[in-house]
UniProtKB/TrEMBL annotation:
Function: Involved in peptidolytic degradation of cyclic heptapeptide hepatotoxin microcystin (MC).
Segments forming domain Microcystin LR degradation protein MlrC N-terminal: 2-293
Keyword Metal-binding set for record: yes
UniProt cofactor note: Binds 1 zinc ion per subunit.
Origin superkingdom: Bacteria
Protein name in UniProt: Microcystinase C
Domain annotation Microcystin LR degradation protein MlrC C-terminal: ranges: 305-491
UniProt key word Protease: yes
Keyword annotations of the record: Hydrolase, Metal-binding, Metalloprotease, Protease
Length: 500
């Protein structure tokens, strides 16, 4: 068995301000940087990402792998046409070379499934179709997908098997790469494509409602696994990325195997009704801070507020100020001096100012940015204040939580600033607050705080739920809509509801 492997990862928030160009893929940032050739197999073997899981399974089976392109960039607005076409062209060139040079028995792709480019609504479907055109109908193509994939009819038609994550926070990425490998084995054992059943939901699901650590998603995925066992199939439920203005945005359930029809119908019924199981409690910044302050008086453990609409994992730039304004206006820092913390705010200029001034200095800052959100609106004004520099850092952070998988992230010159008793972790580069180390690297001990504000939607829960007394979700103005109904959709079909 000789398997061609490649990857393309981007989650596109078409309402966000910044596009992903070629430089964004070269840097990778939250992802490994762009690589091409046999090096991707060596680099990702044993890594906790989908292709890592696929490579591990291939090693166990004795399959040989032909590495091509692996390209990923942080969530943002559209992928540029230039970047996508370069990635696709290199992949196709490598595939043609591999076929001429020893042949290709199967293809595995490590995809996200919610990319949109400047020129294509469904670039993953297009990529699969171009690969299919090269290998023909008989060579199996399988891929792993993110739980937030907006799965299209084209993707399902072109691939022999698509496997999606079953956790959010995503702690089963490598397992999903393995699952794609098992779909390949099932397809090979059968000698033809497995039967597939597909049902699309008719409402969008907010990211905040998708967390599989809470009801109802936890029980839904338990049901999915039970149905797999009962029907000897492979079911998938991709909940969709509800900020991509494309015709096929939304949740999809699909399954493979002889019992797929029955299993997909059963899971569809569990997800579709009752609709109100998916409804959300979203608070204004002021309401969230008021409630957090009153709860904090009754517990020793921190109350965590998710600043979800500035989530850098979904197109935010970690620079909006609505939550900080609310903390200052409601004097949270005066109530609990040095025990209220917000992170991570990306502001390279303020971080440089703090480094120039040194620890203990008072500096006058203009922190954060008013950024475009949607429908011509902008987020809150920067915070103008006098801040004390509490600590400095070079921004190298080794992650310790379940989402970080021991990786090291570089945030550039960083600082802890004290603004009227509120500690703000300020970095030069953006990151999602998905690991407690993103507070600790500037001297903030999250466990000792009364109130934490995290720039994240759901991923923070993996590392923060164990220490939190309560978790609230706030809607401060920012580029990622917590409620899809707030967005000015133009491409969704009229039959698609914006809320459950
Ligand atoms: Zn995701």
């Amino acid at each position: 068995m000789r398997i061609f492997v490649a990857g393309f990862q981007h989650e596109t928030n078409t309402f966000a301000p910044t596009k992903a160009d070629w430089a964004a893929f070269e840097a990778g940032s939250g992802f490994p940087p762009y690589r091409r050739g046999p090096v991707i197999v060596e680099a990702y073997r044993g890594r906790g990402i989908p292709i890592g899981g696929f490579i591990d399974l291939a090693d166990e089976r004795g399959w040989s792998l032909v590495g091509s392109v692996w390209a990923g960039a942080n969530p943002s607005a559209h992928v540029t046409e230039d970047a996508f076409e370069r990635i696709a062209r290199e992949m196709i060139e490598d595939l043609q070379a591999a076929r001429a040079n020893g042949g290709v028995d199967a293809v595995y792709l490590d995809l996200h499934g919610a990319a949109v480019t400047e020129h294509l609504e469904d670039p993953e479907g297009e990529l699969l179709a171009r690969i299919r055109a090269v290998v023909g109908p008989e060579v199996p193509i399988v891929a792993s997908l993110d739980l937030h994939a907006n799965v299209t009819a084209q993707m399902l038609a072109q691939a022999d098997g698509l496997a999606a994550y079953r956790t959010y926070p995503h702690v089963d990425m490598a397992d999903t790469g393995r699952l794609a490998g098992r779909l390949l084995e099932r397809r090979l054992a059968r000698g033809e494509r497995e039967p597939i059943a597909i049902r699309r939901l008719s409402f969008l699901l907010s990211l905040n409602a998708q967390c599989t650590m809470m009801a109802p998603a936890d029980a839904v995925y338990d049901e999915l696994k039970a149905l797999d066992t009962r029907h000897d199939g492979v079911l998938n439920f991709a909940m969709g990325f509800p900020a991509a203005d494309i015709a096929e945005c939304g949740p999809v359930i699909w399954g493979y195997g002889d019992g797929a029809e029955v299993a997909v119908d059963a899971l569809f019924a569990r997800v579709d009704q009752p609709r109100d199981q998916w409804r959300l409690d979203l608070r204004s910044p002021e309401a969230a801070v008021r409630e957090a302050l009153s709860v904090a008086a009754t517990t020793d453990r921190p109350v965590v507020i998710a600043d979800t609409q500035d989530n850098p994992g979904a197109g935010g730039d970690a620079n909006t100020t609505g939550m900080l304004h609310a903390l200052l206006a409601l004097e949270a820092g005066a109530r609990y001096p040095g025990k209220v913390a917000l992170g991570v705010m990306a502001d390279a200029e303020v971080a440089a100012q703090a480094h120039a001034a040194g620890v203990g200095a008072s500096i006058d800052i203009t922190l954060g940015e008013s950024v475009p959100t949607w429908g011509g609106q902008f987020s809150d004004a920067p915070v103008k204040a006098t801040a004390i520099v509490r600590q400095l850092s070079d921004g190298k952070v080794t992650l310790k939580g379940p989402m970080g998988m021991g990786g090291t992230v570089t945030l550039g010159p960083s600082a802890c600033l004290d603004i009227q008793g509120v500690l703000v972790a300020v970095s030069s580069l953006k990151t999602q607050m998905l690991d407690r180390e993103f507070f600790r690297f500037v001297g903030i001990e999250p466990e000792q705080m009364k109130l934490l504000v995290n720039k994240s939607s759901v991923h923070f829960r993996a590392d923060f739920a164990p220490i939190a007394s309560h978790i609230l979700v706030a809607k401060a103005a920012g580029p990622m809509a917590a409620d899809p109904a707030d967005l000015p959709w133009t491409r969704l079909p009229a039959t698609m509801a914006l809320r459950p």
